[in-house]
Amino acid sequence: MLDKKLLREARQTKFFLSLTIGLGIASGLLTILQAGCFARIISGVLLEDRGLSDVQGWMALLLLVIFLRALLALFSESSAQRTAARIKEDLRQRLLSRLFFMGPVQVRGERTGELVNVLVEGVEALETYFAKYVPQLALAALVPLSILGFIYPLDLLSGAILLITAPLIPFLMILIGKWATVLSRKQWEALSRMSAHFLDVLQGLTTLKLFGRSKTQLDVIARVSDRFRETTLGVLRIAFLSALVLELLSTLSTALVAVALGLRLVYGQILFEQAFFILVLAPEFYLPLRLLGTQFHAGMAGVSAAGRIFEILETPLDNIPGEERGSMLKRAESCSSAAPHISLENITVRYEKEQVPVLNGISLELLPGERVAVVGSSGAGKSTLAAVLLRLLEPEGGQIRVNGIPWQELDPEEWRSGLAYVPQHPHLFYGTVVDNIRLSSPGASEHDVITAARLAGAHEFICGLSQGYDTLVGEGGTNLSGGQIQRLALARAFLRKASFLILDEATSSLDPERESLVQDSLERLSDCTVLIIAHRLALAERADRILVMENGQVTEAGTHEELLFKKGDYYRLVEAYGGAG
Amino acid sequence: MKEFLRLVRLTAFSWKGMLAATVFSFFTVSSNIGLLAVSALLISRAAFHPPVLDLMVLIVGVRFFGVSRAVFRYLERYVSHDVTFKILRKIRISIYEKLEPLAPALLMNYRSGDLLTNLVADVETLKEFYLRVLAPPLTAFLVLSANFVFLAWFDLRLAFLFLFFFLLAGIAVPLLIAELGRGVKERMVRVKAALNAQLVDSIQGMTEMIVYGQAERQRQETGKLNRELTMLQDKMAKLSGISQAATQLAMNLAFWSVLLAATSLVRSGSLDGVYLAMLALSTGSSFEAVIPLSLIYAYGEESLAAWKRIRNITSASPDVADHPIPAELRDYSVEIKDLRFRYDQGKPWILDGLNFVLPQGGRVGISGPSGAGKSTLVNILLRFYEYEEGSVLLGGQELKHLGQEDVRRLFGVVSQHTHLFNTTVRENLLLARPQASEDEMVRAAQKALVHDFIKTLPKGYDTYIGEGGFKLSGGQRQRLAIARVLLKEAPILILDEAEANLDAIAEREVMQSLLNMMEGRTTLVISHRRLILEKMDQVIVLPPGIRQEDIF
User: Fold this and answer.
1) Min Cα separation A391/chain B (Å)
2) Based on the number of CB atoms within 10 Å of its own CB, is B9 exposed (0-12), middle (13-18) or buried (19 or more)?
3) Is the model's pTM score more than 0.90?
4) pLDDT tens across B269-319, in order?
5) Looking at residue A283, which CATH number applies to its domain?
6) Domain total of chain A
7) With an 8 Å Cβ cutoff, are A254 and B409 in contact?
């Protein structure tokens, strides 16, 4: 019911949490006072034959209580929100920092949609937990107890009825609640499965039409909807029973109290004013408990969201470059603007312990200004090689040197500042085209941006967009094709004026003409070491040197002609591709 | 307002269920009113020590109401959920009916993935429409009327006092809050969307962020949005506090003023004192029906916005009109004469005078850079787009005059974006021809070189693929798609870059199954690859003017 880790988070907002609970208790006490006034007035008018002028003092007090309660209600919502606000803000920032710290290689395993959901909705779910559930938990204990404190001295029997039934509510709530939670989760799963089915059908609409089956799908949708409705209602029929039992418990015991009071009143065993006071208070006694029942699910949702949040915050970091380790030994001169000489010796990388290494003792050398292509079947370790060179992944064995300086002595930030990188599926950020190109060097002039776009063969299509370089792209912006996105990413890389450029299948969505234009641009780059990872061999053909990778190792190296002549792995790849074309 | 009524009309079919749910909901609230009112009357009567027998009716009443509330609540929830599911079913079907003629032209104009995901999410949003928008005012109206009549029976002035405060809490307060909160809510939606976009960017674009040293800046930007969101939520909480305080105040003031007025009525002798407590308590407890009203505007706006987005997509008119003229096809040849096509008047021509003949059993290849109109040609042939100028003859008949479904029956299409459904391999294959025998299906799979692979799956042809099932590689997907098209046994084949985006090994396998497939069929191939274009009788390069050699 309470989560230890979450409560630790609550420590930083102890004040607002106590304030929320305090306001709730004050409101509870005022309710008791209101019932007292009410009972006095009724008793006066009914039994003592008092007129309005005799009870006006009580009426005035009642009015005051009413306004005071409104005032408390005004502040308690704000105070509850404050409780949650700081925790949420803080957790969200910590989560994001953590994800950045984990780096893309480790995060890639997680699904983006799910992660964003945790950061936005998951953290938001804690609002109800801290703002509603936790304070209500305290109030559900304190308010009924104080009401009981007033009723007990007046009437033991009513007090006993309340005291016996009260613990049954949380008890049943937990008992049924757990079971109902399972059921309601099933219901949500069913709902989301139904949505998933609908989405699947819509996405496949063109395919359905091609096979002339789109009209018959209407019946399928209707049938699936009906089936889900029936099974879900079957589940709900039972799930709603839990609410029925809880509701029944509180109304039935109110009725029990009322009848018991009425009968004793007939025989003069209790005074009217006291009996009436107790009657009015009885529903108020159950109210906080019932409210807790309605918050229970929200509270549990908060706990399960918290589970995922802390899982991310506590993910062990492995294979991650130690940021602080590098920065202690900063050697800025190693990353001068000249093209670097990079050597890898016996590098081994595994994603998970005791698994087959992805890079298996690979050794290679990149000379300053050289254009080297890496080819090989998927899974050969090409992209992992790129991740290592980008310092997104720390090898478990072997040595890398840049211009003779050991890898450990290079500051990762410093090293990356001389790098440019184009991944196979580049990401477009929400913003304008020019912002996206400028990502690699925020201060670049407009002229430089256009030059870079020309080199990447992107200028032409950018000019054709509705607002040229100022067109919004990314999430919710103009839709660009895969090839256009790749050209923007290439422009981004060209703008960087880097001394080391890594292209990871960066032209896979370009048609042959445009690919060849990009190749021309690459050849014009001066003072830059280029590593080209390619599955289309055309791009490799023109490189200074080709490395063929298989099972995490370099199996062949040489120029296109040399390798063809050798009739080895490269020759077979070219064969498979149906001639170099 | 027009769209709101349209949405209401769409849900109106389930009026019986809605009526039942509303009545149950009214009884739920009334049971509570009854419980308190009858208890108060019981105690008030008992104070005069009457014989217990005289109180029997009241005692039974108290017990009845003590039980009935829970029962009515249960019935109400059950019926209203049933109604909700029926409404969702209706909405889904109506969307599909509207969307079906629009595919695929519509799906190409938008970012189709997002479009459909949002569409489905919007349907989900509408599940609140009945429960939270339509139902509460109906219930509130019934409760208001019933208690008004009840109070008026004693004294009309009491009834009007109650009416005043009930309308204040039920209409004035929610309107005021909605008005005050409008700006804040809009900003909140924007900030949340921006935060979402930022986080998606941060996670999907993490590699680029880190490589280009922008991680810290991104973290700060996100922090700014995060703080802005907190500030807006603070404002919303204040508004919600005002709303709750005002509703509670109206309720208690109604209770107080009815108590005050009734007291003077008792004094003047026009009201029996035993009813005093009952009238005050029934007034206060009928405000239970007001509480859900405070959320109507928020949910109403949300539902309406979702509905408008849905309508925006589904109200487009289909591109191709279907007026088939019955005609016999001479054969399965395709003849294109001076074909011109553009998406809209005033836009440049995508196809500008295309000519070629694909005889029955012949093979034509089409090549050219992206944007040259290759896929447009395919969509015209499949009757997804209407052409304005020139002529397309299918078996000697003008394509325009043939029925869409009749035309599509003749084509087997393999493209690079083949959709496989989240179901079994078998069902995906049999989509092409549901009545195909096991043998025919296996033969198609063998010919597409995918049978051996299917055999290695945990449940063979009955393995689920896609989400929650088996993940397929690009090459495996394509070969399944080829098997499916083979099963269709269409006389004309269109291969639209069916081998694109595959690695060399997968491409070779797919290529082999494509070649198997082409044997003896009229084939139109769109490709960049020489390997497959070499096997064609004729290769056409788009746009005209580029020499074939330039492509290779």
Assistant:
1) 9
2) exposed
3) no
4) 899 999 999 999 999 999 999 999 988 888 888 899 899 988 888 887 777
5) 1.20.1560.10
6) 2
7) no
